[in-house]
Structure formats: C-alpha cells, structure tokens
Amino acid sequence: MAVAATPDFTPPQELLQQRRNYTQVAQELFNVVKELCDLTPDDRVLDVGCGAGRLAGPLVGYLGPDGSYEGFDSSRERIEWCNEHIAPHHPRFRFTVAEGLYNGQYNPAGDTPASEYTFPYPDAEFDVIVLASVFTHMLPDDVAHYLDEIARVMKPGSRSLITWFLINEETERLLAEQRDRRHDPATNAHEALLSHDFGAFRATNPRFPEYVVAYYEGWVRDSYARSGLEIVEPIHFGSWAGRTGTLFNQDLLLARRPG
Q: What's domain 22-166+213-256's superfamily in CATH?
C-alpha cells in the first residue's frame, strides 16, 4: 500500500520572507509545546498570533478527532493561506483574522489597539494556549491585556506557553560580554544590544520599539500574578542572549490557570 506524502506546510515567499529552516523550526516549536504543556491528542489548542501556521502544521498530524485547533492573526493573507492549505487536513482546525488589530511592526494600518482587543472565544475554552514570538513585538499595556484574555479563555488547570526575551542579571551580564558584536538598532534579538530602556522593557530601536522587545523578568512575573496565572518553574531560558544547552531560541515561560 502506498504511503501518503507528508504535506508541505511551508508558506510562499510573499507571506514569509524568512523561511530558512522553516520546517525544522516548526518541529522544534511543536516539540517544546508537546513536552512542556503535556499536550495530548484530545486537547483544544489556541495559537495566538499564528502567522502562516508554523505550529499548526505539525499539530495536524498529532491532534486526534476529539482535539481541535484555533489560530488567529492580524494578517488576512496568512490566515487565508492557512485556511486553504492547512485547515482541510483536519476537520477541527480553524484560522480567524483579527480584523483591524494594530501592531507597530506587523499591522501598522490597524485601528484597534491590542489593549482593547477581545479574543473571539468564550470563557474557559482551551486546554493549551501558545504564543510564539508575539510578546517579543508588543508593548506593556497590550501584553497586560493579552494576559488577561489568555487567563479568561483558559480552562481551570490548563496550560499556556509563551515565548519572551527576558532581562535579568544573567542576561545583562551575557549582553555586556557580547557588546563588541551586538549593535543597535537591530532587527533580531541575537544581534541586538537592547540599550534603550523604557522601564518595563528594553528595545533595540527607540523609534520602532516593537521590532525587538525584551521585558524585565520582574515585570513579567508581576503581570502574570495580576492576571491570575501561576508560573510553572523553572523558566526555560533560550539561546538568544548567548546561553547554551537550551530548549529553544527564545525564553519559554509555562503557566497554569489555577483550578
């Protein structure tokens, strides 16, 4: 019997300029979500800022008939591509456009601030919520509101996994040691010095801070507590600041909604 070919979920060049190692990065993201969130085939998953479906692709072959996936993003083009090329492979996959959602980097023409955006889902709806490279491009008021929304749509006892660039004493030491090869402005955290301090966060470019946003760990911990989310220790710091032996390139923070 012929074996069906594995679908290629790599988006076209016009939807994602940086496609290098796309399949590998997608699999790495799936692996850490599966491991840290104790993901099961029956889970209901929400992918906030799903983009062109990087996480959705590997989930298609993992989630069973009782599992489901919801993803939303401000890019209509990427959502349409996902609904055409990924959603048909699973009966309970759905991608939604976040109409008019503003982001200084990805959707500067939007008219709805993220701090006012309500996730289009009922309360206590999801088992697992993932945000991959979302808060690394958002400002404090928007992040705080999203954490409230995340807590609202999480089932009691459910899990959220969010990637960050986190600043603490060790991070500052590592950045200082690499000062000769880092610079500002930069378009990614691996090259950035993050020398512009805005209180809760640091950025590489004061004119366009959302290009790379790194938050102070203390502010992040306080924000989780205010939203009623419990951080599951330890935080898994990534390789972006020069750490080795990491699970991922960005910092991984797992949290649960009590109950």
A: Vaccinia Virus protein VP39 (3.40.50.150)
Per-10-residue mean pLDDT for the chain, 259 residues long? 61 78 92 98 98 96 97 95 96 94 76 92 98 97 98 98 98 98 96 97 95 97 98 98 97 96
State the Cα–Cα distance between residues 47 and 31, nearest whole angstrom: 15
Contact 194, 175 (CB under 8 A): yes
Sequence spans of domains, the chain: 22-166+213-256
- CA-nearest of 122, 116, 123, 85 to 98 is 116
Question: What gap in Å lies between CA 123 and CA 131, rounded to an integer?
Answer: 18
Distance CA 43, CA 67 (A): 5
Report how far apart, in Å, the C-alpha atoms of 157 and of each of 76, 185, 230, 241 are: 32, 41, 10, 32
The one-letter amino acid at 15: L
